[in-house]
């Protein structure tokens, strides 16, 4: 079954009970994330300056903000910090009390880091799906996210099949798989992925398939799969998890070759200093499509292009599998 209570945010509760719409949740959550840094800075400074009044006030304010976004761990840590400050009647603190409070603050900082990482993911990728339409179509956030989780896991394998059919020049199969993925994307209100799959099928249907056009279309589709896995991984998980480390939002329209794609950093690298490590439910290796070596072709230039395609995409497929393995449903 699917659970949308991530380690740091209960997304289902936020949307179903409080905000009603995905866009509203994203706006309020981003506002919450923007204010986390100043809150933590004032808590740290008040701890350093032995100012219990400010520390208690900031912990109380952050506790209320955390409750509004169902950030359960942050809420509990703020409550513990607020209570611990209240019980200290002598400032500056002795060594034992200082150590006790420093441990609580450090744990709160780690949780805030995780929430900020989630904020980066949502900020970068939240427009990749029509969440409100999906919620209405399937009846609830939980059901829709469950569909997305299974879709993302299966799509990585389907991308591997498309890759192999391109390498083998089985163009009818490429079109069939792309059309199938287009239909599934439409069913789940994933307009960007639907368009990417449609475009791949379109360029492959051409009487004279142009390799570079097909390559660019497939790269764009891979990027959509990567983005969706990253977002779904961040929103849907059953464990206390680290969120993917995200740099600036990726503009997939700027990537037109396998070399461009291979130069990208993967968003699936995890922050090792955050929450407990994820115990992957299924190994990516068990489900990853094995890629055959490109056969030699008569035309040297075409062979060189396709070998480059095969070699450079292999690492990108590993990156996509890495995120998908963390999404794997039980």
How does this structure look, described?
Residues 21-122 form the HPt domain. Residues 258-282, 304-313 have a biased composition (Polar residues). The protein has 330 residues and is an all-alpha fold. The protein has helices spanning 11-19, 22-48, 52-68, 72-87, 95-125, 131-138, 141-167, 171-187, 191-205, 211-235, 258-262, 284-287, 300-327. It folds into two domains: 11-126, HPT domain (Four Helix Bundle (Hemerythrin (Met), subunit A)), CATH 1.20.120; 129-327, no CATH class. Helix 5 runs antiparallel to helix 10 (211-235). Residues 1-6 and 238-306 have low confidence and may be disordered.
Short structural description:
This protein is mainly alpha-helical. It is 69% helix and 0% strand. The protein has helices at residues 11-19, 22-48, 52-68, 72-87, 95-125, 131-138, 141-167, 171-187, 191-205, 211-235, 258-262, 284-287, 300-327.
Topology at a glance:
Layout: H1 11-19, H2 22-48, H3 52-68, H4 72-87, H5 95-125, H6 131-138, H7 141-167, H8 171-187, H9 191-205, H10 211-235, H11 258-262, H12 284-287, H13 300-327
Helix pairs in contact: 2-3, 2-5, 3-4, 4-5, 5-10, 6-7, 7-8, 7-10, 7-13, 8-9, 9-10, 10-13
